């Protein structure tokens, strides 16, 4: 056993000593499936992926600014003294506030930033984005997944997440696009013009302004991470940054890599992967799967007979056909709401509370919380925006060309999948990974945690592209497997694959 492996495990061991408290998934599944279904109707497979702004990134984005001419706001004004209900002995700095990304329209994005409690000055900077499209990174990412706190059932107090990613990085949670969470626009028509392109450019402008507010992070190694529809957001924002870098020779963010979990990458592959996942896991009968494969090619030519074959598992019929299961994790307990309005879990899974998505809105809609985080007090916070109209033509049918371009520019690109998710399942991600057509350099093998568990499986390709699974995790991997997600994230930051052997010897 190598000395590096032993040192690696010792570094992680102290982070993984305590159990996770509360975690859960937001109700983004219906929103994403509705988006997928709307995209699949009458759209050619070679549309926006080849003809949109992502086809020639340097021409599309190279003209964007590389600095902020008139920065506003300050670090001190955004400092959070303490979050209401937070536990004692919080040993890291927190900030939150607005960054205006369009002065003319009054479009402003809300962020929550947590520094690392361990030598923050030497840690990299990470931007986390949740998907939807149109769901909050503050609600899911920060308070249900990888953030330093969890909202307790009382909706008023917080508990510590011992496996938070700010143990190893300084993390920004951005609510994007405008209209999501506390982010807003003073021009109401902006909400009807949301889409991949504006989201990417606004997020880039946000970073330029944010770095002026926190200048000590200029030049710091920077990474973008996210999940679900962030399978679009993250590579697209990275594409904008790399295109500006290539065009101008300037590098305002020092982007080193992207890390995307259970990503939505391809309309048709995602639908095929989802249905095949259900069949593989015994949720669908052999006869039903045979009928689907008989009538569906999972492409733009599919017609009425395919829709009829898939209909038992479409959004309207899913819970009737599959039963009351959580598509984010088909083996996890679900949240039950009693007639008197109280909620409880249908079963027990250590460290997991499926009802947390009831607690988080209660917390963020408290006036004292809004005041503490410098949010607009009169704005109602919700997990996902209901007033956004997405420009579907801006969204590539497949993200494979964009991912391929990023890999060939030398960017570190890692995708990972919790293996119990049906919304953006591992089967779908594998189809897209195959479409990249990269040469395997390190074949599929198990990876281990310092606790001697098989954390999942991993494979690396030419150019450093890496695909990993997280064993026993659903769509929101840090919620279901916090220890394993932290191990994988730490490996990504270090640019090394997690251990291939267990320290335990029989």
Automatic annotation (TrEMBL):
Pfam families: Peptidase_S10 (PF00450). Residues 42-83 are annotated as: Disordered. Keywords: Carboxypeptidase, Glycoprotein, Hydrolase, Protease, Signal. Residues 1-23 form the signal peptide. GO terms for biological process: proteolysis. One of its GO terms (molecular function) is serine-type carboxypeptidase activity. Coiled coil: none annotated. The keyword Manganese does not apply. Belongs to the peptidase S10 family. This is Carboxypeptidase.
